[in-house]
Amino acid sequence: FKQTIYLVGVFLFFFYLHGGTSSLISTLIIFPVYKTVFRQQIHNTSVHRAVGQLLKEGPAKLYRGVAPPLLMRTLNGTLLFGLQDTLLHQLSLSSQQVILSSALPALAGFGAGLVEAVVFTPFERVQNVLQNGQNDRRVPTLKSVLVRLKAQRPALGYYRALLPITARNTLGSSLYFGLKGPVCAAVEAQGLSPGVSSFISGTLTSMVISLTLYPLSVLVANMQAQMGGEVKGVMACWRMLWESRQRSVALLYRGGSLVILRSCITWGIATAIYDTHQKRSN
């Protein structure tokens, strides 16, 4: 019995470790692109203007705010991949064919996305405050941001925009884990190597997800980036956002091209690294 517990523990450790490692590497590579997209979402600017802002601020500020997303994405990958696999294992044992086996990865992904939203909303809140250049004077350091948010009640502080984040994460995780396996198998059937197939699978899947859920990400960024002022609910914030984009879907999707690039690199790398480690562990 002890040996069985030990083997299960080692098995889960590697799944959680592999998810964290893949997310850490991909986040460091893609952070400048992420910050450019964030500026477009907040200031409603073109990609050239957003890049110009970052270049004007200089290299020293380029990675301002990298600590929260780096920590968040590393822990996020650790939790998301590991918890999804744990839930998938439990569902496989208890479903008794009531649920189609092909739907189990998506269902486990939904559960992992729900936990992810609860755990990581505070990280995203801090990250968005730090990356908003308009907050530089009022809250210039990470410590000052943490002190300011701690003084507010959770719904207005660390857990601002929890509802749209939960909707985005649960839907995104369900689609990702539900689609990446079949897509990878289809690509690998064309004669490509497993590593390349995993990369393409992660790229295509994340591209579909990021474009579908992009409006939610814009809403979250705008709700979380501000400190102080009048606090509005989700629907009121959505109406303000829609009006500020002149009721234009094209303007709402400003930054979408970079989202595709970011998703391709981030999830392509993360999926390839995770699948490679997973196969070596089996």
From TrEMBL:
Question: What is the organism of origin for this protein?
Answer: Cyclopterus lumpus
Q: Name one Pfam family in it.
A: Mito_carr
Spell out the subcellular localization from the entry.
Answer: Mitochondrion inner membrane
Alphabetically sorted, this entry's keywords are: Membrane, Mitochondrion, Mitochondrion inner membrane, Repeat, Transmembrane, Transmembrane helix, Transport
Q: Which GO terms describe its molecular function?
A: NAD transmembrane transporter activity
The annotated topology with respect to the bilayer is: Multi-pass membrane protein
Q: Which domain of life is it from?
A: Eukaryota
Alphabetized InterPro entries for the sequence:
MCP_dom_sf (IPR023395), MCP_transmembrane (IPR018108), Mito_NAD+_Carrier (IPR052465)
Q: Where are the Solcar repeats?
A: 10-90, 100-186, 189-280
Tell me which PROSITE patterns the record gives.
SOLCAR
Can you name this protein?
A: Solute carrier family 25 member 53
Report the Gene3D superfamilies cross-referenced here: Mitochondrial carrier domain
